[in-house]
Amino acid sequence: MNQDHSSTNYRLGYFLLVIFFVLFLFGDTIPFDRIWPVPSSLLDMNTIFISIVLEAIPFVLLGVFISSVIQTFLKEETLKRFIPRNPALALFPAVTIGAIFPVCECAIVPIVRRLIQKGMPLHVGIVILVSAPVLNPIVFLSTFYAFQTDLTIAWARMGLAFIVSILIGAVIYAYFGNSWQLNKKNASVHNHYHNHQERNRLAETFQHASDEFFDMGKFLILGALFASIVQTFLARDFLIELGNGMLAGPLVMMSLAYVLSLCSEADAFVASSFKGLFSTSSLLAFLVYGPMTDLKNTILMFAYFKKRFVFAFIGIVSIIVYTITILFDVFFL
């Protein structure tokens, strides 16, 4: 019965994927407007939705593939050997790992889930989750290029992200310790791939990546749909009017970063379009907060983590990013 259900899910997943790419490749040639007049706002929403999905899919594939490599090749003993037993000292290697991982927020969720299943402490995994999408070299270079007239933003983004990541890890440990916060269905590593040593490990990796991609894909689609709706119907002028002031500006830009769900490799170019309309601290709040948590990423986290933990995580990240950017504005700008 389970096999039939799984087979049906696979067929449905492949069917939807084929439909998506057919519409993407040939949608312009289909006279939808003659069949059924579509409002321009819905067309805009559709364009944004497709762009978000296409932007995210390569990174999701990268994430699930790395996750599968971790599942197949990384042993729990090896992982524990590289993590200091002291919870505070463990935060700094976690940030270092995040800084060298060239992955965005779309890819990091399955990677961190797998590392936690392998025995990585919760707070260490969360530090990697929030630091990797913003501290990696690709993000630095894109920010550096987007703000060529104000290079301090690129450096400040990296510095603030480092501090925020450490603080988030410390608060997560203080509240949750090493308690298990993955969903029940993710309560243990699926070792059935390791039960047969004679199986080819490369085949196991691709099999596992395929399973995880279709498991995660539906949450990506749902998150992209919500983000495209918000982007289409959110009034930019209203945001600018609402975001005047040192205290309101960062809050508004953090909210914008959350709902836009931009990829961290591209968000600096969007932020630069707001230069002159919002303060530097507000732009930094946008650039630090968005890669750490957004609407699309939240839905992906709900797939793997307990709901209570996800809500707490969003609250902790929001409070810390907002506080640090306000303090940066007061003392350095």
Automatic annotation (TrEMBL):
<feature type="transmembrane region" description="Helical">
    <location>
        <begin position="90"/>
        <end position="112"/>
    </location>
</feature>
<keyword id="KW-0472">Membrane</keyword>
<feature type="transmembrane region" description="Helical">
    <location>
        <begin position="12"/>
        <end position="36"/>
    </location>
</feature>
<protein>
    <submittedName>
        <fullName>Permease</fullName>
    </submittedName>
</protein>
<dbReference type="GO" id="GO:0005886">
    <property type="term" value="C:plasma membrane"/>
</dbReference>
<dbReference type="InterPro" id="IPR005524">
    <property type="entry name" value="DUF318"/>
</dbReference>
<dbReference type="InterPro" id="IPR052923">
    <property type="entry name" value="UPF0718"/>
</dbReference>
<keyword id="KW-0812">Transmembrane</keyword>
<feature type="transmembrane region" description="Helical">
    <location>
        <begin position="219"/>
        <end position="236"/>
    </location>
</feature>
<feature type="transmembrane region" description="Helical">
    <location>
        <begin position="48"/>
        <end position="70"/>
    </location>
</feature>
<feature type="transmembrane region" description="Helical">
    <location>
        <begin position="309"/>
        <end position="332"/>
    </location>
</feature>
<dbReference type="Pfam" id="PF03773">
    <property type="entry name" value="ArsP_1"/>
</dbReference>
<feature type="transmembrane region" description="Helical">
    <location>
        <begin position="124"/>
        <end position="147"/>
    </location>
</feature>
<feature type="transmembrane region" description="Helical">
    <location>
        <begin position="242"/>
        <end position="261"/>
    </location>
</feature>
<keyword id="KW-1133">Transmembrane helix</keyword>
<comment type="similarity">
    <text>Belongs to the UPF0718 family.</text>
</comment>
<feature type="transmembrane region" description="Helical">
    <location>
        <begin position="153"/>
        <end position="176"/>
    </location>
</feature>
<feature type="transmembrane region" description="Helical">
    <location>
        <begin position="268"/>
        <end position="289"/>
    </location>
</feature>
<keyword id="KW-1003">Cell membrane</keyword>
